[in-house]
Each structure stands twice: as C-alpha cells, then as structure tokens.
Amino acid sequence: MEDVIIIGSGCAGLTAAIYAARANLNPLVVTGNEFGGQIATTTEVENYPGFPNGLQGPELTEQMKLQAERFGARLEYDAVVEVDLTHKPIAVKTYSATYETKSLIVASGATPRKLGVPGELEFTGRGVSYCATCDGFFFKGKELLVVGGGDSALQEGLFLTKFASRVTVVHRRDQLRAGPALIDKAQCNEKMSFLWNKVVTHINGDGAVKNVVLQDTVTGDRSEAKVDGVFVYIGHLPNTALFQGQLEMDHEGYLIVDPFLHTRVPGVFAAGEAHDKHFRQAIVSAGFGCMAALETEKYLASLD
Ligand code: NAP
Predict the structure, then answer these.
(1) What sign does the CA torsion over 244, 249, 254, 255 have?
(2) Where residue 41 falls among pLDDT bands split at 50, 70, 90?
(3) For the whole model, what pTM was predicted?
(4) What is the Å distance from ligand 1's center to 18 Cα?
(5) 114-232 — its CATH code?
C-alpha cells in the first residue's frame, strides 16, 4: 500500500515528489509515457527563477528528478491506464502493475493541441512535429512553417532558426498573443517571417511534407506554400481522460479543484496543467505541485 502516488513527471509532479519525499511519504511517481512533461520538450527556459542565464527544459526536469530522488522519491517509467477512485484504497493500474494507494496527486499535465486538418496525422513524424527540441535537427537548411501566435510558437520558432534556412510563422490573426520580449526577438531574427490572417487547411506530401494549403481568415482566399516541415504550437488539451466520470471537470476537460487543490474525492488532489488553464507556466505548475503535496501530507495525517 502506497501513501501517495503522483501521476506525471512534469514540473508539478516532480515538485510534489520533492515535497512529499521530504515529508517522509515515500512517494511513487508514475512518469507517464514521456518523462519530464512539456517543459522537457522545450528549449531555452529563461524565466524559471534561480537560473539567471537560462537553462534547457530537459535539464530543468532532470535536476528536479535528482532532487526528488535524493529525498527518497521512487520513479516508475510507466503510464497509468486506469484508476478506480470509487473505493479506498485507490487503485492505480499501469501497463505493468496495479498499485493501491491512500492518496493520489494528479499531475498529468496537458498535450499539444492538434490542427485537425487532412495530412496532419499522416505526416506526423515525417514533417509534422509538435517538438522543436526533438525534431529541429532534422531540418537543417530546410524551409519550415510554425503555426500559432503564442509564446510557444515564437520561442520554438526562434530555436528552429538554428537549423532551418527560413521559419515562417503562420498566425490566424494579425496580432500575436506572445509577450513583447519574444516578439522583439522574433522580429529581429532575419530568418523569421510572418504570414498574418492565415490558417493551414491541408498538409500535403509524398512520403514527407511538400506543401501546405493556407486559407486567409479575412478574405477566404486559398494559396499554397512550399515547405519541408510544419511545427504546430496552438495550445494544449489537459490529459484527464482517465478521470472521466470520476472527477469533476469543465467542458474542456480541465479538472475542477478547490483553492487547496482538493478534488471532490477525498485524498485526490490535482496539480499543474491538468487543472490550470490560466497561467500555464513551469513555475506555477511547480507551485501547484508543492501545494498538492502539502495538502496530501495533511490528509494522510488526518487518517491516523
Ligand atoms: P497559447 O498562448 O494558448 O497560444 C496558442 C496560439 O495558437 C494562439 O496564438 C492561438 O491564436 C493559436 N491557435 C489556437 N488554436 C488554433 C487553431 N486551431 N489554428 C490556428 N491557430 C490556433 O499557447 P502557447 O503558446 O503554447 O502558450 C501556453 C502558455 O505557456 C502561455 O501561458 C504562454 O505564455 C506560456 N509559455 C511561455 C513561454 C515563455 O514565457 N517564454 C514560452 C512558451 C509558453 P489566438 O491568438 O488567435 O487565440
């Protein structure tokens, strides 16, 4: 019987693990299919306090992992396939084991939103990507399209200019959502350009991406653009399907929690982008992880 299982190994999950481990709860972290969550797929992290020169996303999560393990957290590189919150103890089934636990911290995060256009699925891994850190290297000297107008699109677009000959950001409006610091950097980068008021409606190719069809959101006009790769950064969806029918969620699937991160099920807490659709910052998720672990500690003490 576990005291606490933490689902997810992003900033929320690993911070919860550090705090729970230091409270002698011997937490078990089920990492999910990809260790480190979203921050591990990003490049330069320049706004995480304590790192004035910035650091790479994967390095940040690796440091958090080492810190959690130092205090006794255990990591299982596995993914949860089923949970039963209807009884105590809570049952958590992964691909390789079934666990029983007194409490649960859901830090399952969020996943990149897909465009949902013809060709996207077919060419994923063959020109369509959601991760510049993972795939940027394969596009040396190539022409790339980045879809989105937020911080991720600009940050990852800038990273891609290290490899690509040209990076064109396609945005559905004529004003970026990204913050001014990134806008300045992007506008000063001679390899970057912008296509305003356009959406991608088709991704075409032959074994690999060759071109995209763009539609003007103002005039409705269609055009074709020759590209070698499409990187999609249009926001996220919470990873909460496992809890459908068991935990309260909003219409987009974000978990509903009280200000202390309690769900309606006693002993089940949420932390990070599984419930936070407002801030979506690594440091905020880390803060939520801390809060969830402190509340878990109190909950477990109340059982004695
Ligand atoms: P985001 O801020 O939600 O931006 C998503 C972008 O995609 C928006 O520009 C949106 O257009 C566009 N979009 C959404 N659906 C679309 C569709 N179906 N077709 C075309 N375009 C679509 O997401 P994000 O950039 O991933 O950022 C998420 C959070 O992480 C934000 O809070 C951001 O500040 C933070 N973040 C911060 C940093 C940093 O500080 N360095 C880096 C990365 C991310 P509209 O603008 O028209 O809605």
Answers:
(1) negative
(2) confident
(3) 0.83
(4) 29
(5) 3.50.50.60
